[in-house]
Design a protein that fits this description.
Elements (H helix, E strand, L loop, with lengths): L1 E3 L6 E4 L12 E3 L2 H7 L4 E7 L3 E4 L4 E6 L8 E6 L5 E5 L6 E5 L11 E3 L15 E2 L14
Parallel strand pairs: 3-10, 10-11
Antiparallel strand pairs: 1-2, 2-5, 3-4, 4-9, 6-7, 7-8, 8-9
The structure holds zinc ion (ZN) (2 copies).
The site of one zinc ion (ZN) has 9 residues, from loops.
């Protein structure tokens, strides 16, 4: 899977043979900050091992330290310093992993789960087959009731 920012200064290549092999990968996030970064009503993210991600033009990346996080641990939100395209988020909470922002890729895997489902717009439907987490997503986190 490969994509680039709006201006082309940054290219991201994901080396993972299991992206389109039938398993769901990645998640939608309805949290306020993902929405702001996405410029839309949810973010499309993929948490993945940093070693599988190859970034060309990394000098063009800049970051905003997001301190308004649920865990309280600051998260670096990285974007292209020329065109502002969101590329990835990095947090010490997830060692060795990055959260890729999937908007730059032509084709992305079917998401596995949705996070912050309580903040979904009233007119948005849950994505069929997606695990629905009330707030933070992932194993052991609280599912959305009802
Ligand atoms: Zn750019
Ligand atoms: Zn989020």
């Amino acid at each position: 899977m490969e994509g680039h920012c709006l201006c082309g200064a940054i290219t991201v290549k994901v080396n993972d043979s299991d992206l389109f092999s039938g398993h769901r990968r990645g998640h939608l996030c309805h949290c306020r900050n993902c929405r702001r970064v996405a410029g839309g009503v949810f973010g499309t993210n993929l948490t993945i091992e940093a070693e599988k991600v190859e970034i060309t033009g990394e000098d063009n990346l800049t970051k905003f330290m997001d301190r308004d996080t649920t865990s309280g641990t600051p998260m670096a939100r990285c974007f292209c310093k020329h065109c502002g395209t969101p590329i990835q988020s990095v947090t010490p909470v997830m060692k060795g992993k990055v959260v890729l922002k999937l908007g730059i890729f032509e084709k992305v895997p079917i998401p596995e789960w949705e996070a912050f489902a309580v903040r979904r717009q009233s007119w948005e439907k849950p994505l069929e087959g997606c695990i629905q987490y009330e707030l933070l997503g992932g194993p052991g986190k609280k599912l959305l009731e009802g």
